[in-house]
Amino acid sequence: MTPRYRFAEFTVSPSRRLLIRAGREVPLIPRYFDLLVLLLERRNQAVQRQDILEAVWSDVIVSDGALSQAIRTLRRALGDTAREPLFIRTVSRHGYRFVHSGVVEESDGSTDPPVPMAAADPKPTAKPEPASTDHTRGDPFEPALRRLLGDDASAPDDPDADRREAAETLHALGTEEALRRLDRRPGHEAARALMRDARWDVVGAGRVPLLGQPGAARAVAALVALRLRHAARLAGVRWGAASAGGALAGACAGLIGGLFLRLAPGADSPAGLPVALALLGSVAGWAGSAGIGAGLAFAEAIARSFRGPALVLCGALAGGMTGLLVQICARFTLEGLFGQDLPALGGGPEGLVLGGAAGFGYALSTPRPRGGGMATPRGPARLLAAITCGACCAVAGIVVSRLGGNFVGTSLNALAHAYQGSHVGLGPLARMLGEADPGPLTRTVSSAMEGLFFGTGLVIGLTRRPH
After folding, report:
1. What distance in Å separates the CA atoms of residue 238 and residue 362, rounded to the nearest whole number?
2. What share of the chain is helix, strand, coil (3-state, %, to 5)?
3. CA 256, CA 87: separation in Å to the nearest integer?
4. How many domains does the chain fold into?
5. Do 235 and 175 lie in a common domain?
6. Which residues on neighbouring strands pair with residue 96, listed in sequence order?
7. Please, where are the H alpha helices in 303-347?
8. Consecutive 10-residue averages of pLDDT for the chain (467 residues)
9. What is the pTM of this model?
10. CATH of the domain at 40
């Protein structure tokens, strides 16, 4: 049987998922409760931050402040402080440790149900709440509402994190009742926007409508600004890994293609071609995945209700802009160095299709994670997501080739025809496929393989969990 833990005036029941203080339930959102249980289970050691993220946020990537916010919430629930901790101590440059020496571990048998917070007499804490009027004494909603609206006189060190914590607490207490009490108070527009954003982080939270409510325009504007700031922070976590994944996939594709062109029957390519194509592939893969990866990361951070369409749209827009920029730079370079323009180089339209396909494959294989954050599947699930996205990008390559567009391989084939002495044509592949010269089948196979490598590498990088 799962044990429960008693310390001071608290009881923690993992099987019933309850934190009880002196007979009354203290509401905690699920991930914060999991964190408390983890610290209690490993109370004889300091738990590293990375171990906590792996255990509590195993299915998502969250910003660096998520764990700090969770610790602040637990300390508030326990009446603890960071400067003189009775329960949770910060271990510098390492993590956190549960330090109370009086923890009793016992069988979690049936007990009397806890008294709801709103019906219980308030208990003193290490840092008492500001004095309240008689009609709000013992009411858990009012202190959280004051913090959400920024009216708390205690002046927390991190007001933004404190307000979000208050919003999550109100969802745990009851979304509908919290909104009813919040309505038309000064500053309710920004508070409602924060409630709307925080509802994704609390399992069982109710709906938070904005349209049709008082101050709807201000609330929507506040929500957009909040999501943009959040997206900028989280997108940076994923962008570098996505770029590296695409670069590695491009290098592999270039190396394999170069070896084939070098070793195929009838080929007369130089020995250094595989290395040259690997370098070119890594640059092309980095550029494409940097743009599309940033678009996907931004969409996943900012969109909650319409995650799938947002991933497709942002991926397509980012791919189109990246492809157009690369095309302009390549044509400008060729014209400046060799005095010859090459309009056949792939660019914006190809990037648009590829980015949309990558967004579709990523959305299809990684459903919106519970509790906010960004999806980070592991093991077989991660491999399946990468293969799914690669397959979607391969289909995009087929579509592009059928419509006359060009990816890297077919663009290089165009260069081979434009510049005498070039060794990067797709002639060896065409002969293997039964075509005298690179035709529709050769173009299709080449573009499909590029899309497969690109999509797979992009998602492998995008879903990497940062350390």
Report:
1. 14
2. 60, 5, 35
3. 57
4. 3
5. no
6. 47, 90
7. 307-338
8. 87 91 85 92 89 81 72 88 88 88 81 48 40 50 84 58 79 86 86 84 78 87 82 71 91 90 76 88 92 88 81 95 90 75 78 96 82 73 94 96 89 77 76 85 93 94 76
9. 0.65
10. 1.10.10.10
